[in-house]
């Protein structure tokens, strides 16, 4: 799950958290965050508390406490980079315009360590779309078939 935000203000993050995560997918059990001031504040804590979401902050100055999230961001950035560089069409020239497509690719590909896709783990079912057919229709520059995320 990911959503572009215009800025890191508390109101922007709060609104995006509610609209793009909680309202769309339901209440998560836990949200793990780093200790950035725009995420570690009373307003975000209140939203999570009122929604019944546990909020967990990684240990400050211990970068390995965020390693899974940072790895997911790196993978997502790599997919976005491939999409932006794949096609000269104007709609793919800005990362936020192709974020949903990148998330779709990321969520539907099996992860190397888990052997399941994030979609399968989150929804406890296989995706309804025939993802392999979609991949076959894409140019090799867009999807690296030799590498799993």
UniProtKB/TrEMBL annotation:
Gene Ontology MF terms in the entry: nucleic acid binding
PROSITE patterns, alphabetized: INTEGRASE
Biological processes per GO annotation: DNA integration
Domain Integrase catalytic: start-end pairs: 1-126
UniProt superkingdom: Eukaryota
Protein name per the record: Integrase catalytic domain-containing protein
């Amino acid at each position: 799950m990911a959503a572009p935000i215009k800025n890191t203000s508390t109101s922007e993050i709060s609104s995006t958290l509610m609209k793009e995560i909680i309202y769309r997918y339901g209440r998560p059990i836990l949200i793990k965050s780093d200790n950035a001031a725009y995420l570690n504040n009373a307003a975000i804590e209140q939203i999570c508390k009122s929604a019944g979401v546990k909020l967990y902050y990684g240990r400050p100055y211990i970068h390995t406490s965020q390693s899974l999230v940072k790895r997911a961001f790196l993978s997502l950035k790599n997919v976005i980079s491939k999409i932006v560089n794949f096609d000269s069409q104007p709609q793919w020239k800005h990362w936020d315009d192709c974020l949903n497509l990148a998330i779709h690719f990321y969520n539907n590909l099996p992860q190397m360590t888990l052997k399941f896709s994030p979609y399968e783990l989150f929804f406890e079912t296989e995706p309804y779309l025939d993802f392999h057919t979609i991949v076959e229709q894409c140019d090799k520059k867009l999807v690296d078939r030799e590498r799993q995320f």
